[in-house]
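Field: COMPLEX_INPUT
Field: COMPONENT_COUNT = two
Field: RESIDUE_TOTAL = 611
Field: MODE = joint
Values follow.
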Amino acid sequence: MANSNTVPGAAVAAGGAGAFDRRDSDWYVDKAVQGLVFLCGISAIVFVLGIFIFVFKEGVGFIFHHMNVREFFLTPYWFPSDADDPEYGILALMAGTASVTGLAMLVAVPFSLGAAIYIAEFASGKTRETLKVLVELLAAIPSVVWGFIGLVIMNPLIIKWFDVPVGLCVLNAGIILGLMAAPIMTSIAEDALKAVPDRYREAAEAMGATRWQVTYKVVLPAAKNGLLGGVLLGVGRGFGETMAVLMATGHAVNIPDSVFDSVRALTATIAAELGETVVGGEHYQALFTIGILLFLVTFTVNLTADLIVRGIRKG
Amino acid sequence: MTTANAALFQASSLNHRNARVQSLYRMLFGLMTLMLIAPVLIILGTLIHKGGGAISWEFLFTAPTDGMRTGGVLPALLGTVWLVMVALLLSVPIGIFAAIYLSEYAGDNWFTRVINLAIINLAGVPSIVHALFGLGAFVIFFKFGTSILAASMTLAVMTMPVVIVATRESLQSVPLAFREACWNMGATRWQTIRKVVLPNSITGILTGVILEVSRTAGETAPIMFTGAVFFTPFLPQSVFDQTMALSLHLFVAATQVPGIAEEVPFGVALVLIGLVLLMNSASIAFRMWLRGKKKW
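Field: COMPLEX_OUTPUT
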């Protein structure tokens, strides 16, 4: 910005073009900071690329040398520590992740949408503030604490109520994961509802619509994309959750027949087995290959959620 | 005349029905909200009921004894403090500068959108994938070994979005007029940011930092293979040491130690959740205080 206080003509007379030259120390500091800030600005991109590159680098040996794509995706046999004939089939692990995440969404989606509607459209004043704070605090409970709750509180309850031998199962992990994902989805959904301009509501209310009619006919359709994006982000969260799923599923390689079956999730497998593997070994690389898969799936889910949410802003 | 008016303003049966439907839905959603919150409160109550007895000064300030079956959590607590401090030292400066770029420099174009997408992904990638990244990059490639440094770097990368998002919001809430006034005095961009924008948003940034402390303290998976260990008799002396951590200690105490006194894992869970909720409440209280005192 070359806004000097001196009159241009006078400056030329006094010191030529040099008087316009604002390259003093402040100018250089400004340029240096601009560079630094830019570097930090792109750091997020660098880190995401870094994650992909390093996880890929460690896992790539398995993909090219040991992996049989058919066996990897389509067989449910995961016996990586068998010395003679290790088997790497992740079908059962995928089934475990899918069943737990699916059940969690069944629990979380209706409740968090309901809670979001109540907080955004019905509650007001102190009630609304209190509920929002509570939801925010719920979202802060660490996943390992949730896993612990599944292990020591839910487990005996499920055994007692449903008369089953083991309470660490799809149902347990699904409920835990649902309770975990619900606060996050509630606050995203509430943001989406709040983003609907108030004039929409006022116009509908002026026509004599009740609060519910306004919500159902006006606000929900307008916030549709944001809500869908929130649900997708919740799916991504549930899919990638590690500690809670590790502790509450029972960790048995199994394609579940009922919600009382123990399963094992993709994420939990990495967490449980990585410590016992040899760096660079086949098993180690196989676990990184699962990591690549997890990365790609969550990346796609996040990208889709972003596109959906942005879609509404543009239109 | 008067009777006609009365009829005009009398609620019709349709109005009555609408009002009934409305209150029904209101109740339904209110109930759903309650059902979302109530189980968690019950669970927290159970944790306090069962673990409250274990909590004492002695529990907080002694090391585990008898093969971790009894004793306190001091090494884990200190380890978590180390991990959080180092992670914050790394992520807060980068996060704040990144937010400054996004709020003060970046234009509304595809490049900014890519950065935003990267931030969303950084927050959305599973924590176990962050752990794999930390292992592959910091432990093996940069040869930090399993150390506080490697674990904290992993945590820093993972939780940076918290700082970025909070800071960006805080910066953007400073009115443009403040900046314009400063520019018109001949200040450079950086002078404006340092003297006008940052002082007016520092409290909001702090809110984000406190929130990050709570996120970082609770993470388990990213530190499992990068620097935290199940048990070590030594307290960490430098960033190149391994350490115990509260979150991992809970996992270990709950699943890996046979014959552990029942209240010990409950006590650990209570300390961890207490730490996290305390930090979060502080952040929320701070934000509310801030909102009350804002001048514009």
